[in-house]
Each structure stands twice: as C-alpha cells, then as structure tokens.
Input
Amino acid sequence: MKRLLVIGAGTAGTMVVNRLRRILDIDEWKITIVDPVETHYYQPGFLFIPFGMYSKNDVLKPRRDFIPAGVEMIKAQADVIEPDKNQVKLMDGAILHYDVLVVATGTDIHPEETPGLEGPEWHRSIYDFYSLTGAQALAKHLRTWQGGRLVLNVVENPIKCPVAPLEFIMLADWFFHEQGIRDKVELIYATPLPGAFTKPIASKYLGDILEGKGIKVVPDFLVEHVDQDAKKLVHYDETDLEYDLLVTVPLNKGDELLARSGMGDELNYVPVDKHSFLSKEHDNIFVLGDAASLPTSKSGSGAHFAVDCFAENFLRYLDGLETNPPYDGHTNCFIESGFGKGLLIDFNYDVEPLPGRYPLPGIGPFALLQESEMNHWGKMMFRWMYWNILLKGREMPVPALMSMSGKYPK
Output
C-alpha cells in the first residue's frame, strides 16, 4: 500500500486530506496527517476579538472533527524531514515513511525577532492580534483605554492574511466612534510597503478610504527596534514614531521543522513550482498553504483555491502527466471596514485587484474595491463557510482559477 503523509492539520492540511480521501483508492493509499495541536483555530476571527465582536468560543473547534474517516491522525511534533530516505522523524523518535509527502505547516508570528518588541510592555502597551492570547489581551485593554495615539505597525512582509492590518485599523476607527472617544484617538498605520497595499490600484483605493476615515498611513516604515521606555518605534534611518498603544504584526516565519530539514529559505518557506506546488528539489514533496514560498497572499482563500487545483492535478501527477490546469495564484479577500460595511478584492499572480462586480458581471452580489453592506455580510458568512464547507473540502460554486468577468480593467 502506498503512503501519503501530510504534516500540519491547519487550513491547508485539513482541506487536502478531505479532498484526497475522496479521490484516492482506499485499497491503494494510506493517508496519515500529523500535528501536535488538537485545536483548530479560525484565525480570521482573531481580528474581531479585540472589538468584542467574537469570543474565544467562536474561533476554535477540535481538529479531529474535521479529519475524515479513513485518515489516520497522529498527535505528534515532527522533528525532521529526511527526503533522501522518504521519511519523517518525530520528536519522540518514531519514524513515518511516505511515498508522497505534503507539507502544510503554515506560518506564525515571531516578535522575538524585532529588538525591544517583547519585554515588560508586551501585552501591556504592546499587543498583537495574530494570536488568540494577544487578541484576548488587547480586547481587555481596549475596554478601558481612554485614547491617545494608536500605531498599527507591520514589521515586515510577507504576512498571513495581508489585509488583516487594514481591517484592524478601520475597525478601530469604527470601535472608537462607538465608544464616543474617536476624537481622542489618533490612528496611524505604519507599513513597510510604499502604500496601503501591495498592488498600486488597490493601494490607491484603500489609501483613499483610510484617508477618508482620518487614518494616517506612514509608508516605507522599517522598524529597527522598539524603545519600550520611550514608547517609540525606531526606523532604520533612526527616525522615530511615538505611540501610546502599539498594535504590531510581528515578523512571520515558517515552521522551524523546515529549517532543521534544510528545506526552507531565510524565512523557513519552501521554494516550490508556483503552478503545481511541487518542491523544486524533491519530486515527491508538495508544499501547500502558508508554508510555500509563493508570490501570492498567505491566506485561507489562497489555500482553498490552491487545494482545489492541487486535488484536480494529483491524479495526473501520479500518472506522470503535467499539471492541468495550473494554479494561477488566485485569491480573494473580504476586507471588513467598519460601520457594517466591507470591501472585496480578487486577484492572481498576474492581475492585481480591480474594481467591478463578483462573481457575476453586472450583478455581483459583491462589489470589488468598493465598500458595501453585502461585502460585510460576505465577511460575516465566511466563518460558517469555513467550518462547514472549506475545511471539509467541499466544492464551492466559485472557480479555482480567476476570471476577468465582471472586472473593469484599468
């Protein structure tokens, strides 16, 4: 019997085993998934916790609830991948052999990589919302905060869910209006990018929206260190940005497993073929989700479209055929903008976010790069879809590859 081994039971790994369990012959393939954590986190929901919109119970469920029958799940930490032996060594010394390996170990924040970010003020005047602990601590702090300068800073890219910082700062604008203290709060978005987003058209649209909300964008801001005593971020050119409350998106890195295995780049992401997800060095190792070094967003939406393409092509791979159709980098993201409205962006490797309607031209019901109530409800519905459709590998009525239908080219 052939062995398919998946490392990582997060979004991408869970979707993969659900999809492949349906299409692989159970008499020919044994599927195993390995992860040390029993809880599955709905990470997009962390964003809402600081503002009292979600609680802890809204963002977690047991991982085993989403692993299909017939798939072996092992609660363990992988120590090292040994591609020359087609095996993975676990921390407890056990060895798992494979014929095909799928790496889906994701990415995580590393505040320790930025001097001065951690320390006595961590979760006192400096917070993150990319972890459940950080989001909960920030929620508690915001309940009694009376105002001042709130700086949201992205340390470096890439980050998972690259629109989340924009969502946070816009929700903060709404939240402080609701609390009656918006006139006492200065909101600053300090980003290493030259504008509000990575792509120029979307950057202008989003930048204009931020400006209209009274949110200042500080572009090209690269943090060298944080001075906790003086409450300021210090740029590499030694300019300062003072804060009363700092909300940080720390450096994101892939799993240390990939560094130990000699497979990752400087940020522990694995170089892969961007259309097939096949490792550039090993012909029986695929890397999916945030663990892959790809020129597209690290997001649940990106993982969903990627897994759709991967599942279609896995049988072709087993038969020695080329990828068809190749993954085009398609991803889309709802962007919650506060006051019951949201935006939507849809793009791929070659086409940046454009205005228009999605998914049906002229009808939508979602507007691209435009605030609308329908986009807000799309964002709110996504949690149900995530738990009940996406994680379980079920088909969505949206094609995996991006369509230009309904978009207005610039």
Notes: Residues 300-318 form the longest helix (19 residues). The two ends are 53 Å apart (CA to CA).
